[in-house]
Amino acid sequence: MSANAPAPVQQVAEKVAPAPQKMSGLQLYSGFAFAGAVCCSVTHGALTPVDVVKTRIQLDPATYNRGMIGGFKQVVAKEGAGALLTGFGPTAAGYFLQGAFKFGGYEFFKQQWINQLGLETASNNRTAVYLASSATAEFFADIALCPLEATRIRLVSQPEFASGLVSGFGKILKNEGIGAFYSGFGPMLFKQVPYTMAKFVVFEKVAESIYRTVDKETASDGTKTGINLGSGLIAGFAAALVSQPADTMLSKINKTKGAPGEGTMTRLFKIGKELGFRGSYAGIGARLFMVGSITAGQFAIYGDIKRLLGVTGGVEISK
């Protein structure tokens, strides 16, 4: 055979790599859920010290009145550096569950809307699809998160209450019943649902505007991670501002149990009246830093884990 003769067809075919098969069904949404669980658990857990200071400022603004840096110094001086990790257990565990429902649910409900409306209609009304999908996903995520968040706040606001997640959870369950875990469910919804709606919509819109000038198909993994970080940071600032009043109320309502016969709504109105507008934004500086960092990290980690897992079956409706 001549050296210049074409290679056999079979040899050429062997060199062509098969196109990667897209995931679907349970495998696809399990990947979304796992990526969401890890990104939320890691980011919220890492910023536990900031959350401790933020919660102290919200619950006792008269004492913790020196801002975020001053609050760190006050906590360390009064209780030692270890106090900054108070509530790490319920934070990491709670947001692992919440992240799975939030991100996995967002992708799932977004796909259901696309199925119902059709791809073109969903794309033309994508803001409404993002809002509806994120709100529904967050509702179910909060059912999972609420007991652990109630335990975390009790540990942070009352350091002597219990030694950690298991003992604190058990003590609340034994002394106050399962209803105590959901005393803050109302304000949690008021906080988390608008927060998540703002978070996903702003992220999607910012990323979409960036990808109008950057080719997503040819962009490097590092470029994509950077875009996710920047879009997530802006989304986090927006989400923090929208949800701050309810976050303060959630901290207040979980600090102590209510008076006998006092309903959740009665307590909420009472707390809201006591706080006022200015009081409801106590600790906003610490929370902007915390939520901005958390959200940027979440979307960066979420995107990276999806790429590593090959979770590529979701439908995009951005333009």
TrEMBL record:
UniProt entry tagged with the keyword Nuclease: no
Subcellular locations according to the entry: Mitochondrion inner membrane
Protein name according to UniProt: Mitochondrial phosphate carrier protein
Keywords: Membrane, Mitochondrion, Mitochondrion inner membrane, Repeat, Transmembrane, Transmembrane helix, Transport
GO MF term (any one): phosphate transmembrane transporter activity
Record keyword Transport present: yes
UniProt cross-references to Gene3D superfamilies, sorted A to Z: Mitochondrial carrier domain
